[in-house]
Amino acid sequence: MAAPQMLLVALASFAVGSSAAKVHSTRGALSMSFDDFVALHARSYSKGSQEYHERAALFEARRTAALVQNNRSDAKWSAAINKFSDRKEEELKLMHGYKPAQVRQSSGLSFAAEEEDHSRLKAALPDKVDWRHLSDAHVIVEQGGCGSCWAISATTVLNAHSEIHRGRARRFSSQELVNCVPNPQECGGQGGCSGATVELGIGWAVQHGLSLETTVPYLAQDDSCSNSFLQVQGLRGSTAGGAAFGLTGFRVLPSNKEEPLARALVELGPVAISVAASNWFSYDGGVFDECDNIVNHAVALYGYGRDSSHRWWLVKNSWGSDWGELGYIRVLRREHEDQHCGIDNEPDKGIACKGGPKEVTVCGTCGILYDSVVPQFDESKEA
């Protein structure tokens, strides 16, 4: 089977001035027959087979759920029939893959964790911030059936911070992280498409450097760790690692705290975050507010804002530009987000390492405050 390709999309500016669900945009898709859906998405189900009937049942159940959501008088977001509508639960789980470590260690890196700066008077935060003017904002990745969201989230924030702090737009290789980053504590998986952490991904880049996407393109599958930045630099007699392009370390923000996350987003740039995304698949637009507490997916926080009715977080996902609002989702930002908490009692399904706790507290809508990582670049502008 041909390897899925990374989607490069020039994002058009889209208005988000109204929080009303855009029900009108999905009516056509919701009236689609299953046979039309099969043709549209090039499915190979044999009509009348057991698989055909199983997939059709999933499609009809999700169409019904979408209609119910879109007909709610209090709906903040709209649902759609899309490429996920006939997928089994085990297939949808492959679209996650984030396994944040329970014990955060520096491993000799320039690393700061769980610390807040009380040494200076902090400036008031603005009502909105939006980093979609950056070059990488216009690139939406289709992660495919690989639990590589941790790697894509890591490279998304590395791309952004390279442009912000070094003045150099780069697109780092998510595939190299999938290929090369070990996961020795088996944090919910064995690494690669079986899942790992943003911390491990950025830590690898700090120590070993990271190739560009053009050198090691995304394949949406596990592959050998070859032609890596480390190997190329070694052949040149260099051992600079991430310092070769200004990456010096990373910072893990205080867990379940809203202000440090918002401040890092405003003052530093996009932040890699973890979320409970099991209910995101049918999202089509609007302000999403229906999550469980099972944190299982890594994404990039790209901004926040508000309209006449709601505050929201702006999140860049890795499910292609044909999902959500051109690849983005707006997630409800409640007043006092760090007081909106729940218990993730299934960390073994997404966030547990060997010997980790049986349950963890996650705060913010969709657990958005639980685990947040910011890369650190030196501020020397490149020519």
From TrEMBL:
Check the record and name the SUPFAM superfamilies matching this protein: Cysteine proteinases
Q: Show the Pfam families listed in the entry.
A: Peptidase_C1
Span of domain Peptidase C1A papain C-terminal: 125-351
- Asked if Lipoprotein is a keyword of the record, the answer is no
Q: Which UniProt keywords apply?
A: Signal, Zymogen
A single GO molecular function term of this UniProt record: cysteine-type peptidase activity
| GO process annotations (BP) | proteolysis
Q: Where is the signal peptide?
A: 1-20
Family, similarity comment: Belongs to the peptidase C1 family.
Protein name as it appears in the record: Peptidase C1A papain C-terminal domain-containing protein
Q: Which organism is it from?
A: Symbiodinium pilosum (Dinoflagellate)
